Amino acid sequence: MTIEDKIQARYHLSVDGFTKQDVATMLCESGASYSDGYIAFSIQKMLAAGTIIRSARGQYKFKSNSRNVFQSKPDDKLGEMSGFLKAQFPFVDFCFWATADMMPLMHHIPNIRMKIVNCNKDAVEPVAHSLSNIIDTIVLPDPDRYSIDNVIRDRETVVVLPLISQAPVQIIDGIPTPRLEKILVDILCEEPLAYLRGSESYYIYETAFKDYEVRVQTLKRYAGRRNRLSEVETILKGIQL
Fold first, then answer.
1. Model-level pTM?
2. In this structure, are residues 131 and 81 in contact, taking their beta carbons and an 8 Å threshold?
3. Which of 150, 154, 197, 241 has a C-alpha 20 to 30 A away from that of 48?
4. Please, which residues have CB within 8 angstroms of residue 145's CB and are 6 or more apart in sequence?
5. Which spans in 123-196 are helix H?
């Protein structure tokens, strides 16, 4: 197997791309030994052939590695909640989404209708209380297993959960929504999303990497902040990434 073949096998699905040092480290870990000059020559050959492109100074990625960007699509109800809460709590950070957004990633579609509001930890209770005064839907602040088993599975709910600092968030139509990397980690952490674990989580990860842009470094960084890095790495190995 040539260096080009090894680069192809290791990085052709990587949205983050790679550097010459990444390739050198990968080759060293596999027990191979090549000079820096030969590695650089191999990368130049791939550039000349159009197989890879420069994505930044000293960074490369595969030209064919172009995927859709996953976007949560806030409905009118989430939009109303977003406007209300940002007016009531102007100094609180928020993130809004619905579990229905995950349907393209899932194998089994459960009958669960849940909207999720993430906010600063110390604001979870007051935010949930404020929401319960303006909407008919049941609002649960950071629910425990009993509440989940007896409420969430039977009716539409709004769940208010703590927002971890530096979580991957993007703005859609003026509303802060999660990036895919946040969702992929949160399904391994949050009790209301426990039904997505096990074999379903592997399917979700595999579909996400096949159909959408996933920034591996962002995924692992956020997983580390949530103490789920080992679980994420286990899943990535399980789907051969």
1. 0.72
2. yes
3. 241
4. 191
5. 124-132, 145-147, 180-186
